[in-house]
Amino acid sequence: MSVLDDDAIALVGLALILKNKKQKKREKWAKDWLLKRKIYSHVNLLNELRFEPLDFKNYLRMDEDTYRNLLSMVAPLIQKQDTVMRKSISPHERLAVTLRFLATGRTYEDLKYTSVISSQALGKIIPETCDALYRVLRREYLTFPTTEVEWKDIAQLFEERWNFPHCIGALDGKHINIVPPAGSGSEFFNYKGHHSMVLLGLVNANYQFLLVDFGTNGRISDGGVLQNTTFFEKLLNEELNIPCADNIEGSSKQLPYVFVCDDAFPLRTDMLKPFRQSHLDCYEKKIFNYRLSRARRIVENAFGILANRFRVFHTQINIEPKKIEKIVMASCALHNFLIVNSATSYAPQKCFYQEDIANGSITTLGYNVENSNMHSLDRRNSGNIANSAKQVRENFMNYFCNEGTVPWQNKFIA
Are 365 and 214 in contact (CB under 8 A)? Predict the structure, then answer.
């Protein structure tokens, strides 16, 4: 008898054993305490917290009226039908547990004891609800400018609040630490020695995201993060309807409309970044860096508010990448929604970057990302920079040091 015959006999024998083996019967449809959701669920706690508004806000990161409004918007997308076997988990329970997950970053296994929903069910409910939140909120609260008028409105607000004319957004990116999926190897391994995915954000002067792009794995070079976006492709092809250069209001100086960013991004005619510290050999460059920093800090502050309010960003997110994307995008959309509808509780004045222009000190750095799992993109080498881009930066520098000066700027430079 050949070796092949022996293997065939062994396989047949194994098949017979598996066929005759009795399938282990499931002892229960569900654990008894999970069937008592009406009694033990945290929605009962929410009913009590209604009489303590500050505790309600802290629990879900919004007041009751804002929560009810949000629930009415998302409920049609997350409503499930009851069956003859059991009653479905209500939209109220689904939304509340999702918001609590975002607010705390607790594991599904931990959340099941307060929500009285199994961790397996939470693994489906939370990403589904996040996806529904993003789809509902992006239509009104996460809209990207499409006309010259909209871009000019953004620039006007930056000039009024941060004395930076023709600024159409502050751009930055953050590495979000994750637990890498099995078998991914070094795909998500970044230069800081962590596994991550990258969140790219463009923010207006009101700390609201105009654009968020998430999903690039941390291994991609930081220059490649921007280049992989549809936003950058359209920017290169001049398809964003950005206004042409024109005169600053009240001045004869003509300057282009630009995005402000840090050293992780390229210097372009439509993208300004600071002079490197080693190149600060004159007063004018220091003034430019200070003025640019005032406008650029808005995006840093927005990330800080996001991470401090949704403390899932303080954890190493341990979910498969596609579901992480839904969680991050929903968080950004919720950030904008709450800035508009619940600003005093979600982002009070203490959250924001402020300066004391009387003595040249920063009174608050705003919420930062120091204690979160967000890490800055790596700084790029200058490389070859087009002369036209350098000239645009120098034009802004000259404006800030002459007719565009502000009385306190000298107090903020060393």
Answer: no
Tokens of 286: 């220091």
The per-residue pLDDT for range 324-334, each reduced to its tens digit, is: 999 999 999 99
Confidence of residue 40 (pLDDT cuts 50, 70, 90): low
Look up tokens 């107090």; give the residue: 411
Its sign, for the CA torsion 315, 319, 324, 326, is negative
Q: Which residue is it, tokens 């003595």?
A: 359
Give residue-wise pLDDT tens across range 115-150.
889 999 999 999 999 999 999 999 999 999 999 999
The β-bridge partners of 211 are: 202
Please provide the size of the chain in residues: 414
| Rounded distance between C-alpha atoms, residue 324 and residue 318, angstroms | 8
Q: How far apart are CA 270 and CA 155, in angstroms?
A: 13
317 forms beta bridges with: 178
Tokens for 93, please give them. 């329970």
Residues 56-67: tens digit of each pLDDT: 988 999 999 999
**What whole-number distance in Å separates Cα of residue 178 and Cα of residue 196?**
5
Q: Angle at Cα 53 formed by Cα 315 and Cα 66, nearest 5°? A: 75
Rounded CA separation 133/127 (Å): 10
Task: Collect all residues with Cβ–Cβ distance below 8 Å to 274 and sequence separation of at least 6.
Answer: 262, 263, 288, 289, 292, 293, 296
Q: Are 320 and 181 in contact (CB under 8 A)?
A: yes
Strand extents, DSSP E, 321-366: 354-356, 361-364
Q: Are strands 258-260 and 271-272 parallel, antiparallel or unpaired?
A: parallel
Q: Which residues lie closer than 8 Å to 77 by C-beta, 6 or more apart?
A: 132, 135, 136
Beta bridge partners of 174: 199, 376
pTM of the model: 0.88
Helix, strand, coil % over all residues of the chain, rounded to 5: 50, 15, 35
39 has a pLDDT exceeding 90:
no
Torsions phi, psi for 212 (to 5 deg): -130, 135
- Using the CB atoms, write b or e for 29-60: b if 16+ within 10 Å: eeeeebeebeeebbbeebeebeeeeeebbebb
Main-chain phi, psi angles of 210, to 5 degrees: -90, -30
What is the greatest pairwise CA distance in the chain? 99
